[in-house]
């Protein structure tokens, strides 16, 4: 798993690009962009929950400290560390 613990500072905003229905869940940081692949389908907030869980694990903070600021229904999302 990609180590993103340097982003665990409160107030940090993390922009990610999400790919749902991937073959395996993973986070890839390439070229300054963070891509999150999740295996669930994007319906009823399931993909957002999976992204939040995976991202919180990579950043090293509880899920409750990650807030989805923008992109609830889009592939490009913005999270804020609380």
What is the secondary structure topology, with strand pairs?
Layout: E1 13-19, E2 26-30, E3 33-37, H1 46-59, E4 66-70, E5 76-81
Explained architecture:
With 82 residues, this protein is α+β, with helices and mostly antiparallel strands. The protein has one helix at residues 46-59; strands spanning 13-19, 26-30, 33-37, 66-70, 76-81. The protein has a five-stranded mixed beta sheet with strand order 2-3-1-5-4, with helices on one face. The two termini are 22 Å apart. The model has no long low-confidence stretch (mean pLDDT 95).
Short characterization:
The protein has 82 residues and is an alpha+beta fold. 17% of the residues lie in helices and 34% in strands.
Multimerization state:
single chain
Distance between the termini: 22 Å
Shape: globular
Relative helix content: 10-25%
- Please identify the structural class as seen in this structure: alpha+beta
Notable characteristics:
1 helix; 82 residues; 34% strand; 5-stranded mixed sheet; single chain; alpha+beta
């Amino acid at each position: 798993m990609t180590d993103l613990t340097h982003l665990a500072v409160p107030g940090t905003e993390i922009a990610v690009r999400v790919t749902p229905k991937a073959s395996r869940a993973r986070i890839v940081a390439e070229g300054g962009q963070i891509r999150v692949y999740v295996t669930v389908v994007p319906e009823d907030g399931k993909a957002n929950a999976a992204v939040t869980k995976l991202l919180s694990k990579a950043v090293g903070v509880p899920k409750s400290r990650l807030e989805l600021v923008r992109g609830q229904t889009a592939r490009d999302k913005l999270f804020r560390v609380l």
